[in-house]
């Protein structure tokens, strides 16, 4: 599967044939303001979205559905290299031990029971989000230790990288539109190095995919936009962990 314009850094896919349960989960997730939520009414509809190019950062999926069960969807995703690492959370009233064991064996990162109880569900979700966010980008404290710098310096790195992206994105797209693929790749490589240096793992991977073969201007522009969004989110994570947020305002 190749990246397409459907990809978005923070899309979460919600799969459930019960519309009430689907809406309830979407309402619960929307409170966090982290994800752009995409819904599918069953496993087959979800697979159609994935096959068309949707690459969510996480999937929440019912177990028992017509056409394709949650377990079957999880198996398909694990068999597809481009989707195998997407965190998959099963959401179901099926509490039998065999289903839970099967989900864990297949690589599910979490299992939430319904009907959803807000406090209990939030506790599970926050654990899952910590795992998911760490896969998207390195924890700022870890980045600072790795680079041997303090929070003010990391903030300066991120801000400078953000400015580089703002200026460089149209230039890279213009080079690709003009058929100057080699020069564009050099600039994309520079952005990729910045992502790896700053611990922006997910967008670094997206850039890796986008620059293979003949880069497509539209796809590269989209991924560079995702890099900018990742920088913004990482700055917010850094600021949230600092004792004096005003120093970074």
UniProtKB/TrEMBL annotation:
Domain Response regulatory: start-end pairs: 11-129
Q: Which parts of the chain are coiled coil? A: none
InterPro entries assigned: CheY-like_superfamily, Sig_transdc_resp-reg_receiver, ST_Response_Regulator
User: Gene3D superfamilies under this entry?
Assistant: 3.40.50.2300
Q: Which residues carry this modification: 4-aspartylphosphate?
A: 62
Keyword field: Phosphoprotein
> PANTHER family, from UniProt?
TWO-COMPONENT RESPONSE REGULATOR, TWO-COMPONENT RESPONSE REGULATOR ARR22
Query: What name has this protein been given in UniProt?
Result: Response regulator
Q: Which organism does this sequence originate in?
A: Massilia mucilaginosa
């Amino acid at each position: 599967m190749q990246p397409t314009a459907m990809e978005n850094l923070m899309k979460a896919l919600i799969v459930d044939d019960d519309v009430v349960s689907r809406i309830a989960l979407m309402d619960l997730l929307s409170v966090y303001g982290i994800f752009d939520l995409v819904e599918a009414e069953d496993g087959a509809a979800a697979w159609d979205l994935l096959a068309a190019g949707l690459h969510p950062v996480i999937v929440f999926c019912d177990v028992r559905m017509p056409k394709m069960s949650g377990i079957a969807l999880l198996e398909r995703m694990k068999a597809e290299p481009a989707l195998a690492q997407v965190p998959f959370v099963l959401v179901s009233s099926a509490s039998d031990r065999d289903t839970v064991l099967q989900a864990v064996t297949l690589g599910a990162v979490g299992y939430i029971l319904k009907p959803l109880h807000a406090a209990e569900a939030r506790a599970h979700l926050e654990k899952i989000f910590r795992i998911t966010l760490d896969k998207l980008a390195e924890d700022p404290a870890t980045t600072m230790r790795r680079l041997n710098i303090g929070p003010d310096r990391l903030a300066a790195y991120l801000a400078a990288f953000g400015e580089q992206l703002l200026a460089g994105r149209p230039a890279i797209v213009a080079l690709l539109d003009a058929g100057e693929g080699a020069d564009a790749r050099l600039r994309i490589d520079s952005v990729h190095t910045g992502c790896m240096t700053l611990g922006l793992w997910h967008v670094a991977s997206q850039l890796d995919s986008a620059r293979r073969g003949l880069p497509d201007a539209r796809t590269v522009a989209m991924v560079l936009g995702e890099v900018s969004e990742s920088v913004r989110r990482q700055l917010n994570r850094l600021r949230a962990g600092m004792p004096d947020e005003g120093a970074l305002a």
